[in-house]
Protein 1
Amino acid sequence: MKKLDRLFQNFTEACGQNGFELFLSPETEPMKDLSRIGNDTVFFQARNGQLFKLRNDYTASIVEFFNRNVPDSLRVWYSGFVYRYDPLGQIQPVFQIGIETIPYGSLQDSLLVLKILVEPILSCLTGGVLVEIGDSRVIERCVRHVPKSFRKKLFELIDRKDISELELFAFLNGLDLSEVLKLVEASFTKRSVEQLEYFELEPSIEKEIVQVVDFLSNFPGVRVEIDFSIARTVEEYDGLTFTIFDLREPALIAAGGRYSVNEKVLGVGGTIFLEERAWSR
C-alpha cells in the first residue's frame, strides 16, 4: 500500500474509533463578510453579481457551521482541498485531512487530537518527527502593549526569528520589544521542558505544557521541543499550539491547537498537509 493510502486509512480508522464523523463542506462559499478577505483568499463573481470564495480553511467552515446551527457539540474529521494565493499570485490547491472538537472541554481533548494525528504519521515515516509545542497566550502577553496596527508585521518578524530585524523594527517604531526578543532568543537555546522556568509562565500554562510533553514522550519516534515564538497564526489560536515536522527532511507536515469559536466557546483541532515532500519518499 502506498504511503499516502496507509496514512489516510490509519487516520480515518482512528477517527472512527474515537467517535469523529466526516464533515462535508462545499468548495465554494458565498462571501458575506468582505472584511475577512485576506491576501491569499481566492474569490470570484457569479453572473448575478454575487461574490464567492474558494474554501481556504476547513476550521473556519466548521466554526461557522457550529455558530450558525448551535449543536451541543461537534466531533468531526475532514478531507479535501483548500485554495490560496501564493506569494507570486498563483492559485495553490493544497490537500488536507484533519479533525476538530467543539467545544473544548479539557486538555484531554488536545491530547486526543495529537494522538490521532501523530500515530498515523509515525506509521508512514521512518525517520521520526519533531513536535514543537507553544502557547499563543505567551506571545500575546509579550505584545499586549503593541498597537494592533504593528502586529501583523511584528508576527512575521517573530516567525523569521531575525533578531536584528526585530531590533530595527522596535527602534524605528518606538516600541519596547524586550520581552519579544527574549522569547525569540530562547527559541534557539531553551527548548526543553526543564527550562520552562525561564519563561515565567502562568502555573496553569506550564502545567499543560509539561503534561503534553510527557504524553508525547511515550510515542517512539517523537522528539518534543518547546517554541513559544511560533507567531504566524497566533491571532487564530487561544492556548496550546503545536507544529509537526518530518525529521529526515525538515518539512512542516501538520499543525493545530486550541482556538476561539465564539466569546464563550473554545475548540481544538489539527491538520495534516498532504502535499509536503515528506509523503513523496
Protein 2
Amino acid sequence: MPTAEDRPTPEPSAPASLMAALVALAATADDASIVDVHLARVARLAADTVAPVDYASITAWRGRGYTTVAASSDLARAVDQAQYADDAGPCLRSLEVATPVGVPDIAATMSWPGFHRAAHDLGLHVSLSIPLFAGSGAPVAVLNLYGRDAAGLAPLIRGVRTLYARQPPPSGDGPDGMDTGARQLLAGLVQAFTVRDTIQCAFGVLMARDHCSAAEAYRRLRLWAAEAGDSLADVAAALLDSAARPRSHPEN
C-alpha cells in the first residue's frame, strides 16, 4: 500500500490572481510536483500584472545547476542564462542569500558583466530578484523581474526590501507610487509570510511536544497534510488551534 508521501498532490484550481499564486506556493510542500505549476503562474502573472515589468522568470537550483523553471519570454531566459554562464548575477545572489536583490540602474552595475551585457543588449534598465519559499520556509526559487521603466519599478524594489527585512510594507496611495499590480505582488508576499509563520509555529509545537528536530517536524506535517488531502498551512493552523485549547482536568 503506498504511503501518503507516494500519493500525487491534487491539482488545485487555478489561482485567480498573483496574490493567490504566491499564497498557494507558500502553503505547498517543497517537493510536491505542483510547486512548478505555482512557480510558472507566478512568473506569468507577474509579467502580466505589474506594469513596469516587461519580462519575468523563475530561477531555481535543480540537479547540479541553476535553471529557468518558467519565463514569460525567451528574452528573460536569455538574461538568466547569461548569469548562469558567469555563475554570478542578481538572481543567483538572491537565491544564495535568501534576500531580494534589486538593480535600480543596470547601466551602472559592473559587478556582473554577463548580466550587464545581456540586459543592456535587450534595452533593460532595472531588475528585481525576489526569493520565493514553499512549505518548509526555505527558498525554493527566485522570481526575476526585468524592465525598462526604472522609475516605475523603484517603489516595488523599496517595498520588497522593507518586507523581507520584516518591517511594515508601504501602504496607501501616497508617495510610494506603486501601481496596482505591484501592490498585489507585495500583498501576496505579505500573505505568504503569514502562511510561513503559521507553518513555522507548528514546527515549534511539534519540536517542543515530541522532542524532534525541525526536519522531522516538517516531515510529519508533510505526511499529515498528504493523508488529509489538505495544504501544509491548513494542517499547521489546525495543530496550533488544538495546542491552544485549554485541557480539561479531572476533579480531585
Protein 3
Amino acid sequence: MSNGSNPLKSVERSFQVLEFVRDNEPVTLTQVSEALALSKSTIHRHLATLISIGYVSREDGQYRVSFEFLSYANRIHLRDPAYPMIKRKVRDLADDSEELVQFTTHEDGRLVYLFKETGRNGLVSRSDARTFRPLHATAGGKAILSTWPRAEVEAYIDRNGLEAITEHTITDPAVLFEELERVRERGYATNVEETVEGLGAVSVPIEAQDDRVVGALGISGPINRVGDGDGEYTQLLLDVKKELELNIRLL
C-alpha cells in the first residue's frame, strides 16, 4: 500500500500540516507546501479536510487554526476539579511576589506548563502548554518526582535518561536521589541554573488527599532574586501549598 493510500500516514500528515499552521499562522498554501516538501495538491486536500471539520479557517488565501481548539484547552483546564482554584492562586502569587509564577504537571515523563502569570517584575516566559521540559532538570519536575516511589523514579531514568541542559543539570542518578530526599525533607525543590543560565526557581508539589500529585506550583526569576530557595518566596509557596491542599481535600 502506498503512503498516499495509507490512512495512518494520511492522519500523521494532516497533523503535520495542522502543527505547521499553528506555529506559523497565518500561512498560505505555498508556504505549507514548501515547508513540508509536499505538493500543493496534497496540502490543499489536507487543508480542505481540516476546514470541513472545523479545525482550520481560511480567509483571503491565508490559513489559521480555528477557535475550536479553545474547547480542548478549556476541557484540559477543567480536567481536575482543583485546577480552577490553582489558577486563581497562580494569579494571586504573581501579584504578591511580582515574579513569574507557573503551575506545572507531567505527562509521559515530561513537565507540562499548564498555568502561568507574570508579576510586575517577572520575567517574560514563552513556556506554554506546548513547552515540555525533562522532570529532573526543573524545580517543578523535581517537586513532582519527590512524590514518586523510588521504583517509579528509576523507571523514569531508564526511559528518559538524565540529559544535561546546562552544566548545572543533575545527570547522575545517585545525585538525583539525594536531591529528591532533600526535597522531601524541606518540602520544596529548586532549580539553580539547571535549565537556563542565570535563572532560579522554587517549586512545591501540590498533592490530593489520596497522595496523588496534582502538579507543582513554582516561582521563577533571576538567580539573584530567587536564589536557591532560602528566601521569602519559598515560605510564600509553602503557605499556599497548605491552603491549596486543604481546599482540595474539601472538594
